[in-house]
Fold:
Amino acid sequence: MSAAGGAPVLWTSTFTSGTLAHQVAAVSGVPFELRFISLRSGDHKKPDYLAVNPKGEVPALQLPDGTVVTELPAIIQWFAEAAPDSGLIPSDPSRRIKTIEWIAWCHWSMGRHFNPCFAALRLTDGDEQAATVVRAAALKRCRTALGFAEAALARNGGTLLGTDMPSAADIFLASLGGFAGFLKLDIGDLAALGALMGRVMAMPAVAAALAREKAHG
Structure:
């Protein structure tokens, strides 16, 4: 289970929030070992994985010295700092801090707005009527959040920070746009977001990461 002496190990599960960490890791170009676990099979609650990440969640990044990094913003920043020329987080101080701000916003939005849509029944202890209300309210908040990001994309020429290539924040935002598809949330009028999603999906490293997940799943 140890990553000591080799490349960092990224623990994830296919087509979850860990997919974003997989995409960012691939874009960084930093060598890493990819290990999939199955949430459906309960691998995240088994002793072997809990020894890596006691939170019982994915993703988790196990560094060669044994340090384990959890939470998407921290994992994203680790890969960005390990590959400073990747453009994941720009070196310009103003753009750098704004990229980190947008990553934090995306992470907060994912937890606050998107996750309740997927887990409404669990959050309401199986009360289907209450779950319907929770999900409907959360979907409205998802749409509002994506509309806010759409305005920033339009204002900055297609990326959140006006960078030529999508940053880590843009890749995160594209993932949120992808969640909208799973939730059957109509975002067809968000043209800038749609264009960004297309650009991110066309990035060779992102496409390769998604192909690996599809092949594994």
